[in-house]
């Protein structure tokens, strides 16, 4: 892939008009990813306190955060996510501060009843892992 998903936000599976909820934001997130999603959808990202259903979710997760917290966050996020909406866990790439092993994300996803896909490079410093409910296709 010659373009990263932050340059080509449709790789996330989001569409114009979608409401995307962002979990575990902190000042280390990649603002280019956030901006590209907002540019594509035409909507600002909403936070964990958003009170309605959403069309997609991104979760920023770093090593050192509690794996059980990630599982709980995934469960909470799927509770407001439209049935067919994409859910992504974004983690720092290997060698970056806060880099998380893919097995940690896979274990948390499994605990939450989800499958984790192969990581996708979404920016120079972040990978994304799409989660799907067990039994769902690609």
UniProtKB/TrEMBL annotation:
A matching Pfam family? DUF3052
Name listed for the protein in its UniProt record: DUF3052 family protein
Biological source species: Bifidobacterium avesanii
What lineage does the source organism belong to?
A: Bacteria, Bacillati, Actinomycetota, Actinomycetes, Bifidobacteriales
